[in-house]
Design goal:
The chain is of the alpha+beta class. It has 8 helices and 25 strands. It has helices at about 5-10, 30-40, 45-55, 75-80, 110-115, 135-145, 165-180, 215-220; strands at about 15-25, 85-90, 95-100, 120-125, 150-155, 185-190, 235, 240, 250-255, 260-265, 265-270, 275-285, 285-290, 290-295, 295-300, 315, 325-335, 340, 345-350, 350-365, 370-375, 380, 385-395, 410, 420-425. Strands 7, 8, 9, 11, 12, 13, 15 and 16 form an 8-stranded antiparallel β-sheet that branches.
């Protein structure tokens, strides 16, 4: 079975939107998600009955829609979101994968997880409190992760008498801040998640607002999935060698295509070795195909016998990334233990994990004014900063601006496997100047 380029182009346009919600504690994220699911008829009858029963047992007259997403017992008892809650729902116009992320500063690391694959982020603000530090932190994370669309949902408008001036002030402050970070598109919507204003149905209490509801924006926001335009990258996950009577010479390289498309007959380079060959066959779901694209899981066969193992990267010979052992990146520190200069770590990039040393931490981001605090020496939980890491082996690393998949990595504690930081290679914010790091040769091991 073969797949033509025309079929690939048709499949590159999808109706799936991945989005994440974020905001400070008690801004109403879980209530907004619950309202979105309830009013879009995406809640099963038994789920609603369970929420109604739980709400009644807590002395509430109306169903607490936040319980639709706060699934952990600790979340229900404390009335906060702790873990990322993923929800899948659909409308006639689009399918959605939603990540409801925690608002407490202690769980900012979970927001990084939820937003890492999102194409849109909904940042909630309590109309009574306006933009606070955690709002700025979530905007910074969204910008660092290159989330292309950000929605500012000014919630609890019912508690400020639906005043347009309150909404306008908050929208202007947030838009100015997020624009400085390089967020390409910001849409502000005044809502009341509890009352349902402008979530699924337009609000009769805010006739001064003429924009879309939250659901209408989610259904219509343009999401680009032009897979053929991406830099083609194939991290090798497993080498298949059956060595059976039926397949005595079969040698295939299995994995998931991270980006772009690969075709039979295409000249490719294997990194970090730099050896070249030609794709002789592509196997997908037990059948041979002429072309495969992200995020398909396939097995690629090459015309030449090359020493390839897990962690190697296959890329077009004319569009292969450069390899490096000096990684300059922005990281979100997610561990309780600090990250310090001179610390030995493991760096996990796609399917490859290598030993590394933190050579330098040039700066830490100050969220209030977006200034760079120079030479902090270490990063602690929830800090965002620039790092320079020296790896023991070369890595085929793209910049994060070019590829969110092959431009990202994790720093891991080698002693216990704890994830220390999530990294994004290259420049940090789209509109910010890169930090200049002085080269230094002071006796590092590798």
């Amino acid at each position: 079975m073969s797949t033509t380029s025309e079929q690939l182009a048709d499949l590159s346009a999808t109706t799936l939107l991945r989005f994440a919600t974020a905001g400070s504690v008690d801004d109403g994220k879980s209530t907004l998600v619950g309202r979105l699911l309830h009013d879009s008829k995406s809640v099963l009858a038994d789920q609603l009955e369970a929420v109604e029963a739980a709400s009644l047992s807590r002395g509430q007259d109306a169903p607490d829609l936040a319980l639709l997403t706060d699934g952990l017992r600790a979340e229900r008892e404390q009335g906060i979101t702790i873990d990322v809650a993923y929800r899948y729902f659909a409308t006639p116009r689009r399918r959605f994968i939603l990540a409801d992320t925690p608002g407490h500063v202690q769980y900012t690391r979970n927001m990084v997880t939820g937003a890492s694959t999102a194409e849109l982020a909904v940042v909630l603000v309590d109309a009574r409190n306006g933009v606070v530090e955690q709002t700025r932190r979530h905007a910074a994370v969204a910008a660092l992760l290159r989330v292309p669309h950000v929605v500012l949902a000014v919630n609890k408008m019912d508690l400020v008498d639906y005043q347009e001036s309150v909404f306008a002030r908050i929208a202007e402050e947030f838009t100015t801040y997020a624009s400085e970070l390089g967020v390409p598109e910001i849409t502000a919507i005044p809502i009341s998640a509890l009352a349902g204003d402008n979530v699924v149905e337009p609000s009769a209490n805010m006739d001064w607002y003429g924009g879309p509801t939250v659901l209408e924006h989610l259904e219509t926001v343009p999401v680009s999935h032009d897979l053929t335009a991406c830099h083609a990258r194939f991290p090798v996950q497993y080498v298949i060698r059956p060595q059976t009577a039926e397949h005595p010479d079969y040698r295939g390289y299995a994995g998931q295509i991270a980006a772009g498309a690969f075709r039979v007959g295409e000249r490719v380079t294997v990194l970090p070795s730099g050896r070249t060959s030609t794709i002789s066959a592509i196997d997908a779901l037990g059948e041979s195909v002429d072309i495969a694209w992200a995020p398909q899981s396939v097995t690629i066969r090459l015309a030449d016998d090359i020493d390839i193992s897990r962690g190697d990267l296959i890329a077009p010979a004319t569009d292969a990334p450069a390899t490096t052992q000096d990684v300059v990146a922005t990281v979100c520190h997610v561990a309780d233990q600090p990250l310090s200069v001179g610390q030995r770590v493991l760096l996990k990039h796609t399917t490859r994990t290598v030993k590394a040393i933190v050579k330098d931490i040039p700066s830490r981001l100050t969220l209030d004014d977006l200034s760079q605090h120079p030479a902090p020496g270490q990063l602690v939980a929830n800090d965002i900063g620039r790092v320079v890491v020296r790896t023991a082996e070369p890595l085929a690393l793209d910049t994060y601006a070019d590829s969110r998949r092959t431009g990202s990595f994790l720093l891991i504690d080698p002693s216990d496997g704890t994830t220390l930081a999530a990294g994004m290679a290259g420049d940090s914010f789209a509109s910010a100047r890169a930090v200049v790091v002085q080269d230094d040769e002071d006796g590092w091991d590798f």
